[in-house]
């Protein structure tokens, strides 16, 4: 027992008794990691804004549409590439030095379930990466070309994101957040702030889609009722 | 250690080293439990069929609509009452002798996470009980009175049920199903068969709702395009 204990690799994650013997410290500092991450987000945002600017007079009129398009472009990249990397390489992540892995190792200070292959986090992230990821790109496409599938796609992805995020927060909070470094920086900034976007934005977009879909069903409904009445009076 | 081990309450659940010291064996036999459960399901089904029969010539025309109405009535009761009971009393369930608890204790042979308050199962079941439960009743209501909100509600609840069920199956299967008695009766009948309905039926109903909503959006879309063109030619 004591021999095994001396062999244990020391790591900065919570809970402190978590065994992560394949852990290797990041070569990037926290600052480096955040700079890399926000530079990547910035590049995607600039690309999306250049694209959407070309449709500012047609399908993406107004700030709301421009920002929604940007949101789905960002979601597509974050879900598919960043979360997809975790979904595929979760088992070896703690010892991995690829830059996407270093981002996860930094983030995991606020949630060690990403390094311990927690079954819920793993399955939820795989669904997010490989179902909601492509669906985010489709929704951006559907907005850009104004296709009738846009609000159906927007409702599906938004509900998926909200449900995933609610489960994500509550499954550890109900246990007293044992997977999180209690320092406010990690708890409120990484765990809280970084994820809250996937509660707030999809809630707004989902209610927006529900309104559009409800109105369309009402129009069809009224036309059908009018059709039945017309038939009766023939 | 050995003193604690002798004090442990013996139980029939997996994994065998699971600590459930508040466990008390059911007073109902397996047969009793299934008879009670299926009698309750039968009564709800008869009630729903009597209700839906009255609308067989109007809003619930055809076998498909009658069965869908029955499905949502059943889902409403199962989610809200049966799963709601777990959501509220999970902590004491292993020692509880109320008939809903005895159903859970029998079912838990195929998944002990219901007796150990597994954080994912708990949060997922609470959402199922208190969000999808009322929404199932609303969807049945919307079908019965043919309101325009029906397909939006049907899409939301179906996706919620599928996502919950996929996570439910895979979170234990990815670990090799350690929470399940390996006997085929429990694995294939309780764990497999009892839950597969919430994959199959919502998939059919979700694709049905997507079709209806997509068509409605297309109609509105065409009318808007025609409106814009008419304006241009004025």
Automatic annotation (TrEMBL), chains A, B:
Transmembrane annotation, as ranges: 33-51, 63-82, 120-140, 152-170, 185-205
Domain EXPERA residue range list: 64-206
GO BP annotations, alphabetical order: sterol biosynthetic process
Subcellular locations according to the entry: Membrane
Organism: Modicella reniformis
Similarity-based family: Belongs to the EBP family.
Full protein name: EXPERA domain-containing protein
GO CC annotation: endoplasmic reticulum; membrane
Topology of this chain in the membrane: Multi-pass membrane protein
GO MF, one annotated term: steroid Delta-isomerase activity
Keywords, ordered alphabetically: Isomerase, Lipid biosynthesis, Lipid metabolism, Membrane, Steroid biosynthesis, Steroid metabolism, Sterol biosynthesis, Sterol metabolism, Transmembrane, Transmembrane helix
């Amino acid at each position: 027992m004591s021999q095994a204990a001396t062999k244990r690799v020391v790591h900065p994650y919570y809970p402190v008794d978590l065994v992560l013997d394949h852990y290797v410290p990041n070569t990037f500092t926290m600052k480096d990691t955040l700079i890399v991450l926000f530079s990547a987000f910035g590049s995607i945002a600039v690309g999306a804004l250049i694209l959407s600017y070309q449709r500012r007079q047609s399908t993406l009129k107004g700030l709301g549409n421009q920002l929604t398009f940007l949101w789905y472009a960002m979601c597509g990249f974050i879900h598919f590439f960043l979360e997809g990397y975790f979904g595929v390489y979760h088992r070896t992540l703690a010892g991995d030095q690829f830059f996407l892995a270093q981002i996860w190792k930094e983030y995991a200070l606020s949630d060690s379930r990403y390094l311990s292959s927690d079954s819920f986090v793993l399955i939820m992230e795989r669904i997010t990466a490989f179902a909601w990821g492509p669906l985010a790109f489709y929704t951006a496409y559907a907005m850009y070309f104004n296709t009738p599938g846009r609000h159906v796609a927007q409702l599906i992805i938004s509900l998926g994101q909200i449900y995933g995020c609610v489960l994500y927060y509550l499954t550890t909070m109900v246990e007293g957040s044992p997977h999180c470094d209690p320092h406010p920086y990690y708890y409120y900034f990484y765990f809280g702030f970084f994820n809250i976007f996937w509660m707030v934005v999809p809630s707004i977009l989902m209610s927006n889609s529900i309104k559009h879909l409800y109105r369309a069903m009402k129009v069809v409904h009224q036309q059908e009722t009018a059709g039945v009445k017309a038939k009766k009076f023939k």
